[in-house]
Recover the amino acids of this structure.
């Protein structure tokens, strides 16, 4: 099982980025998929997730209205569209897969990507 994130970079405040997470070794639709982020000195926090149970998508209140999560099952790829970026969005963004009891709890996920850096200035 492998998750590979891409799409991070440096943008100015108000800009947009789209992160991708390519999954291999399993079908992404078999697991709940989530995006987490971790800023220096802070705990890893959930940003958005897709629940494998009902296929519902969820976005954390902190980014609601600006971030959108989506999934292309044919490509086994998860996306995070980030608009109206703010400096406080600066973090390493991680893709995760698993069968979490709580989609917002990082330790409930089994598989993680290496992360991609997002810097907003």
């Amino acid at each position: 099982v492998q998750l590979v994130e891409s799409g991070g970079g440096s943008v100015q405040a108000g800009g947009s980025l789209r992160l991708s997470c390519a999954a291999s070794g399993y079908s992404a639709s078999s697991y709940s998929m989530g995006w987490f982020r971790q800023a220096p000195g802070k705990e890893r926090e959930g940003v958005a997730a897709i629940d494998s149970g009902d296929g519902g998508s969820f976005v954390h209140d902190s980014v609601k209205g600006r971030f959108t999560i989506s999934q292309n099952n044919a490509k086994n790829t998860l996306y995070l569209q980030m608009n109206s970026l703010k400096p406080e969005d600066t973090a390493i963004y991680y893709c995760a897969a698993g069968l979490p009891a709580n989609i917002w709890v990082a330790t409930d996920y089994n598989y993680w990507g290496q992360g991609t850096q997002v810097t907003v200035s």
User: Anything to note?
Assistant: The CA atoms of residues 29 and 66 lie 24 Å apart. The chain has a mean pLDDT of 94. DSSP finds no helices and eleven strands in the chain.
